[in-house]
Amino acid sequence: MSTVKINGKEVTVKDGTLILDAARDAGFEIPTFCYQADLMGVGSCRMCLVEIEGQKKLQPSCITPVLHGMSIHTETPTVMSARASMLEFLLANHALDCPVCDKGGECELQDMVYKYGPHKGRHAEPKFKFQEKDYVLSPVIIKNSNRCVQCMKCVRVCGEVVGANVLGALGRGDHQEETSFLRSFLDCDQDGNCIEVCPVGCFMRLPYRYKTRPWDLKGKDTVCPYCATGCRMVIEERDGIVIRAKAQLGVGLNSETLCARGRFGFDFINSPERLTKPLVKRFGTLEPASWEEALGVIKDNFIAAGKNIGGIASARLTDEELYLFQKLFRSMLGSPNIDSSARWAPEAVEGFIKATGMDEGGASAFDCMESDTVLITGTHLSDENPVTDYIVRRISAGRAMNLVIASPRAMKLDSSASQIVRHNAAAEGHLLDAVTLSVYGGNVDKLRDVPGINRIKDARQDDLAGKAGCSADDIKAIARKLTGEGSVGLFAGTEFLRYPGSIPGLALLKNALKALGKKVTIIPVLDRANQRGAWEMGVHPGFGPGYSPVKERGMGCADMLEAASSGELQALYVVQSDIVAMHPDENFVRGALSGLKFLVVQDCFMSETARLANVVLPASSFAEKDGILTNQEGRAQIIRKLLPPPVKAKRDIDIIRAVGETFDRSFGPKNPVLVLDEIRKEVGMYGEVSLAFNNKRNVDNKLDLKEALVKPAGLAEGLNASGLETKLEPKTDEHPFLLATGNHLFHSGRLSRKSPTLIGLLKNAIVEISAEDASALGLMNGDKVRIKGRYYEAYATLHTRSGSKGGVAFIAENYDDVPVNRFFRRGEGVPRVSITKA
Amino acid sequence: MSGKERLNIFELIKKVVFTDFVKGLSITLGYNVRGSMTLKYPDQEKWIPYKRFRGLHTLNRDENGRELCVACELCSKACPTQCITVIPMEDDTGRGISDRVAKVWKVDLVRCLFCGYCEDACPTRAVRLGRDYELACSDSSCNLKQREELLVPQSVPESFEGGVVAASTFEASPAGLRVKADLTKTKKRPW
Amino acid sequence: MFSDKAKEEIQQVLKKYPNRRSGVMDVLRIAQRERGGHLVKEDMEEIARILGMQTVEVNASAAFYTMYNVEKPVGKYHIQVCRNISCLLLGAENLIKHMERELNIRVGETTPDKKFTLSTVECLGSCGTAPMMQINDDYYENLTAEKIDKILKDLK
Fold first, then answer.
1. How far apart are CA A633 and CA A644, in angstroms?
2. What ipTM goes with this model?
């Protein structure tokens, strides 16, 4: 600890604290441009100069650590005049086109000059200009270098946080320009973090260009609706049009960062394709109807269906809506058949919940990153959950730790890893089994009684490694890292749900490490905003709210479709889920849905599923409702309503309640707040969850609010995790590639396809294979290729990725032109495909 | 006593010769020969206000005909009654002096105080309060002035000194009433 | 793209550095010489590939130093005249004006026959022999107008 005097006030801070942080904690304001706590300090802007007694020259406080006994002055006339002079220099070449600049009104340079500035300049020389006109740097970024203050934040955030490293500082001195390689068009993650950190109007959003002024915008706090990382952001509207989404420094676990989806994908809210009126099928066509009529039709048909009714709700709804949805089915309609995912088997979900310990309460990703060894498996983190990727990169760069990444596909995060393992696709289970076996080899005594160890203890290491497709040395190295000093963190992704046969491997590894007395933190990495919330609200056939056991086990999505095609299930209520596009085997779904007597679809858009419906109800997007979302860590976060639902559309909670009210007027609770009260009462996990916003400043990377994490459920006996297996089509010479799927970096499910900006980033389907496979086939990056499976063939653009494991073709689940689920056939396992030049 | 009587005699004489009456008549007579103080508005004369006058808003162009307005919205921010709405857009075809131009620039004259804050706020001197003051109409349609109308040069150019009475003609047509001033035929104000 | 000889040289040079990335300056120098005095996009892309860097990092390294001419072709003889204080005091300004007249170009320009490029640079570390200039890799010191005339004539 060091004791220093700041402006005469004595403060004691940790050794090595920056003067800037010490002064700000002590309540003194120091202006900065280039300082940001989670980026490497550069001390380039010189706004933070302070006077230290005994030192003749002013010192930059953002890179100078305190020393015991220092006496620091932050507000002397010398310091104030230095600040004014710095600003005068910055303005010497600054374009001063504030009336035109999009940043005008929220510009840090404006604020600073207003507060500290000289208010008149003495530089009469003509200003240096980089270029006359703004230039487009990418489909979402437009650049005006004349306004640059050379703080280098954009370059640093691009390299240190995003890891894309596509921005650099060209030139030097006042002619230094932060831009791309030779100012060329950027082919990067398009996440716009450079825009967010830019203190002036140098990097600007292209979709937001010249639309408004910041003071015209009305904003509301919300959570990104795409993946389950749960990034806090603010969406802002003008005249009913959502214009901008932005993240705030020091708020939420993402602080100022977002990915392309979050930052630019909000514009589906104002899409002209939104459904605005209830539609009822009359003589084979959907026609506009009134709410009374639509609800009347629903009531009649639900009564006719009796208990043979099922419900599927999207994992993007709020916790309140999902809770009410399961309540509608379980206690009003008397049917146990509900599910929250069209993609995953209920048993796999239960196995995954158990294996990742979701029922043991929330775990913060920051705690997980505090571990000495972190293993990332079963997820393409950089594409699926980009902001989790940023957190991992930033923290792993700042401390000594082992970061092991096991994935068939190469990813951006690989550069931060201390060990990279490329295993076969769908072989996560074999890999983890091999690791566990290696751990078991050295600790037989301690691990003898671990449940499930018998499954592998007689297996041969080489067999398992061979099945996983990696070398025994790699596996030993992972095992050594996991059993070494300190705690273990695991990021386990959706591949486990896609290939359920891998789940026992995950569970076994966790149990083995726990039996060795290690602290194991597991973060499930999920790809829908409220997937975890949907499960915790009991929208699952096998368990109720808070993972409580259910009296009668219902049917999951696949079983319901099966029952529908056999005529057993008569009615289905689908909320914001596009099963036709998402469930493996599209033809089977279409057949099953057409076998239904009655299908209600409640959605924002006319989805493929909605086209088959008897009644379509116009629902609302995340910007039009209040509620809470539970992210993958189990952190409950509030979203706030910014806009009313368009025209006659309603909030999902109101629709679900209205459907319930047609049976019983007292069905409720009647509004989200009351539903939350009931959740708090009924679901122990949510009883004490704090919903206070996390508005702490980002001083020492403490961005997580532990009180927002859900509590342990303590009753997971009900989880039935049996019969987990992964089925793969046998490998043939005709179809050499195993088809992997997931989300593309720019898309999430089919929702993001309605966002014009995201469509502008990636419209048509791409198929990704490893660069080695491509060159063996004589194919080049960007070629048009034909993808042929046993049941479907399609054309897409080839994207090669060097460093990926061979034998995997990746097609994201997001494309309308290549619906990846058409390659699948029910009951036949993960398909294999061939790729040839078109 | 005698003084008081004398006074009464003077009063009496005044009454006899109608002094007050003549005084009054002489003032009225004076007006008759001094010429008219009122304007023959609208059909013959019209008052052209001074430069400092704050009338209807006008949006100006530069010497090349490009719009000066850059849609910075400072006028609408400065407006105490929030009567100005500006929506910007991008247009680099040379319509404006910068590539940021106004898609919408409208002012609600019912709310407007004619305080001139918008003029003061404007960084490009695009918005000026001009000298058109005939803002009345028989329905409320004319209360909202759009950019297109305001871009049309006003009847009194900014360089014109003002503070004079100009010859005018009154035109009544189905489109509305108009008082057209001829700025070449002016005279000093009569008062 | 690079000749085999240059590739060989690059490999030799890289042996000096424990980290390949550190060799960027040397490799850029070789690339610039190969190209004949300047660097183009393809060179920097190639260097990025060889060194395992991002293209923009190579670009930033090259753009920082005035000795690299990024996308700015120079003539066969690149005349760099020092205009720092010692040379300036001893008349570098007059020499620059003289050369502008002789070559009929302005500072920063190249003669139409692509032979000479005239530019001014900061101190070249030869203040003892000021005024001085550098043509390609050679120093010419203690300059006078006559001396310059002779040098230029020889080069022409």
1. 30
2. 0.88
